[in-house]
Amino acid sequence: MKRFNFLHLAVCIAIVMTFAVLAEAAKAPDSPEAVKLKPDIAISEVKISRISVVPAGDNVQINVTVVNRIRGTSTGPFKVKVEWTEDPTVGFNLLGTGGVTNLAYDSASVVVRNGKTLSFNQLVPTGKSYKYRVTADYLNQVDEADETNNVASAGYIASG
């Protein structure tokens, strides 16, 4: 009978201690907020294609693809600009700007990165060589994980 009482007492102590631990845990301050992921806007492609040839030169289309590389994040709205020059040492001229409403990288997607392609057209005179510079989020509207990958460039020589 003494064994039963000792066992009974041990179980009661274990139950009381469990409740004490749970009560202390309930008093503990909230755990710090989880680290919030930031989106990362990047230019995945700058593709320049000749769409027609005219006597003055080549009509080209500059296709710019921007992506958000961080899964489970959204960018919100931002702007993309394309500039051109014959000589980068003297500066660039604005070709155009375009807006992106939002790039929301779907957490369920494994292969497809959420992106958008913007198109800009220009006539490149025969024999001229133009360098294009593309800047995503040039107004710094989005707080990003990496602010250093928002610029890309490409060149085109009009053969006529």
What's this entry about, in short?
The protein has 160 residues and is α+β, with helices and mostly antiparallel strands.
Description of the structure:
The protein is an alpha+beta fold. It has one domain (41-157): Immunoglobulins (Immunoglobulin-like, Sandwich), CATH 2.60.40.10. The protein has one helix at 2-27, and strands at residues 41-54, 57-68, 78-85, 93-100, 115-125, 129-136, 151-157. The strands form 2 sheets. Strands 4-3-6-7 form a 4-stranded antiparallel β-sheet, with no helix packed on it. The protein has a 3-stranded antiparallel β-sheet with strand order 1-2-5, with no helix packed on it. The radius of gyration is 30 Å and the shape is elongated.
CATH architecture: Sandwich
- Quaternary state reads single chain
Order of strands in the sheet with most strands: 4-3-6-7
Distance between the termini: 106 Å
**Which class best fits the helix and strand makeup?**
alpha+beta
Q: Rg to the nearest angstrom?
A: 30 Å
**CATH homologous superfamily?**
Immunoglobulins
Mean pLDDT: 85
Q: Strand count, sense and closure of the main sheet?
A: 4 strands, antiparallel
Helix content, binned percent: 10-25%
Q: How many helices does DSSP assign?
A: 1
CATH class membership: Mainly Beta
Sequence of secondary-structure elements: HEEEEEEE
What is the total number of structural domains? 1
The 3D shape can be described as elongated
Uncertain parts = none
* β-sheet strand percentage: 35-45%
CATH topology: Immunoglobulin-like
